[in-house]
């Protein structure tokens, strides 16, 4: 009896965690592992952490060198997302390493990487695998003598100001970020061979990556708009990654700091850091831009049941429902660029789907005059949204022998030729037999 009671108690404690875990029906990440170099980040970055908790996330903040670190147990992942606020860590504790982090992302989980000038090779290697390359020189930071905060007192212009945001409501929200973002950290560039990585916040044309404490002996390796301050990746498995060279960007100090760009009369009482980070984290953790397609149906025009096969030249109706996760519930997704393919080796029909503004997409078309095994395919890829890839197989057959018309109009010339041949043969035979 004691063992049964203990088992029930364990189930009672674990049940809320299971219910809050990542699932297709509620895709928002709930369990987040945050790795830090020092527990002082709990207080220095408390506004960011509290904003996550207020949105229902369960944060587990641990030291990056904790010997008990593990992302999974008995083949099941313990967390839905990973936040690396440990730039100087040379080696993770426990069973966590570079391969474990990459496997975590490959399994569809999300990742945030924030570094600073102390970034270790381990953290840089993780970023490189995600399509982002940090400046190799460990002494360099982003310097901008044109777009720096006027409140900076040291004069090295490493606290820079940027409002060169990506134009995407799904990533940054529909409310425009009025105040610019304060950035203090190192530069990175995008791997040209990776088509999935995007700049979210770019540096100004006057920025460059260098050591501010020494004179430039050679041209900087990264300059101007080639410098990315914040980048994101949406993998093909819909895992989302955010990479930034500024851990300070998440700090209470820069959240609360006023902003005035050098040479600009506009002064903002509060930076745009909090709004920018909050909105972008909503996208990273699937609170926005997460789509699902359900109820794929097709049938002949005038019927309701799905057939086992179609006949060439049949008229059919196709429909699918698409919804977007709002962070709390599924809402109808409305767009005019969703298409369906009727596919066999190549698309024989490519049709844009109409929407009823309530999530239902539909189209009608005629089955091509080609028989074989076809597929209904919906491949939807849009910036900032999870990809939709679905297919449904259906055979297409030709007419049976008893399904053709008795006399086919297009065959009249052949009918005429046949009867003309018979009439000619009869006349020839008559003349030949009865001529004198």
Structure description:
By secondary structure, this protein is α+β, with helices and mostly antiparallel strands. The relative contact order is 0.10. The protein has an eight-stranded mixed sheet, sandwiched between helices. Strands 19, 21, 22, 25 and 26 form a five-stranded antiparallel sheet that branches. The chain is built from nine helices and 28 strands. The chain has three domains: 17-284, 3-Layer(aba) Sandwich (Rossmann fold); 290-397, Macroglobulin (MG2) domain (Immunoglobulin-like); 405-436. It comes from Cephalotus follicularis (Albany pitcher plant). One of its GO terms (cellular component) is oligosaccharyltransferase complex. Residues 298-436 form the OST48 middle domain.
Indicate the topology.
Blueprint (H helix, E strand, L loop, with lengths): L1 H18 L11 E6 L4 H4 L1 H9 L3 E6 L8 E2 L2 E2 L3 E5 L12 H9 L3 E5 L6 H9 L2 E3 L6 E4 L15 E3 L1 E2 L3 H4 L8 E3 L4 E3 L6 E6 L4 E4 L17 E7 L5 E5 L7 H5 L2 E2 L6 E2 L4 H12 L5 E11 L9 E2 L3 E11 L4 E3 L6 E6 L1 E7 L1 E2 L4 E7 L5 E9 L7 E10 L14 H23 L2
Parallel strand pairs: 1-2, 1-5, 5-6, 6-16, 20-28
Antiparallel strand pairs: 3-4, 7-12, 8-14, 9-11, 10-13, 13-15, 15-16, 17-18, 19-21, 21-22, 21-26, 23-24, 23-27, 25-26, 27-28
Question: Can you tag this structure with a few keywords?
Answer:
436 residues, OST48_MD, transmembrane helix, 3 domains, membrane, five-stranded antiparallel sheet, Dolichyl-diphosphooligosaccharide--protein glycosyltransferase 48 kDa subunit, OST48_N, eight-stranded mixed sheet, alpha+beta, single chain
């Amino acid at each position: 009896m004691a063992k049964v009671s203990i088992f029930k108690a364990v189930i009672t404690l674990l049940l809320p965690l299971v219910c809050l875990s990542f699932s297709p029906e509620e895709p928002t990440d709930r369990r987040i592992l945050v790795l830090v170099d020092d527990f002082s980040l709990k207080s220095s970055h408390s506004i960011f952490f509290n904003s996550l908790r207020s949105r229902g996330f369960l944060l587990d903040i641990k030291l990056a060198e904790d010997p008990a670190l593990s992302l999974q147990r008995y083949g099941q992942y313990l967390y839905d997302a990973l936040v690396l606020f440990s730039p100087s860590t040379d080696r993770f504790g426990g069973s966590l390493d570079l391969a474990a982090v990459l496997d975590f992302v490959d399994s569809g989980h999300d990742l945030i990487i924030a570094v600073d000038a102390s970034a270790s090779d381990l953290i840089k290697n993780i970023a490189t695998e995600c399509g982002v390359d940090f400046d190799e020189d460990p002494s360099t930071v982003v310097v901008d003598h044109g777009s720096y905060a006027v409140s900076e007192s040291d004069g090295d212009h490493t606290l820079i100001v940027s409002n060169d945001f990506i134009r995407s409501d799904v990533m940054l929200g529909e409310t425009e970020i009025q105040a610019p973002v304060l950035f203090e950290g190192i530069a990175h560039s995008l791997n040209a061979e990776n088509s999935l990585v995007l700049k979210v916040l770019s540096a100004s044309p006057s920025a460059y990556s260098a050591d501010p404490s020494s004179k430039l002996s050679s041209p900087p390796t990264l300059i101007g708009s080639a410098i990315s301050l914040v980048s994101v990746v949406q993998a093909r498995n819909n895992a989302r990654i955010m990479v930034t060279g500024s851990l300070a960007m998440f700090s209470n100090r820069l959240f609360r700091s006023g902003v005035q760009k050098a040479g600009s009369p506009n002064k903002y009482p509060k930076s745009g850091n909090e709004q920018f980070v909050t909105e972008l984290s909503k996208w990273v953790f699937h609170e926005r831009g997460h789509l699902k397609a359900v109820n794929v149906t097709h049938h002949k025009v005038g019927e309701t049941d799905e057939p086992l096969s179609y006949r060439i030249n049949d008229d059919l109706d196709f429909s699918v429902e698409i919804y977007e996760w709002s962070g709390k519930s599924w809402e109808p997704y409305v767009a005019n660029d969703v298409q369906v393919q009727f596919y066999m080796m190549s698309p024989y029909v490519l049709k844009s789907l109409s929407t009823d503004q309530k999530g239902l997409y539909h189209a009608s078309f005629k089955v091509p005059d080609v028989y074989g095994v076809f597929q209904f395919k919906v491949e939807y890829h849009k910036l900032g949204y999870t990809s939709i890839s679905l297919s449904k197989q259906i055979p297409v057959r030709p007419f049976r022998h008893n399904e053709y018309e008795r006399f086919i109009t297009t065959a009249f010339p052949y009918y005429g030729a046949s009867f003309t041949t018979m009439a000619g043969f009869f006349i020839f035979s008559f003349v030949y037999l009865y001529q004198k």
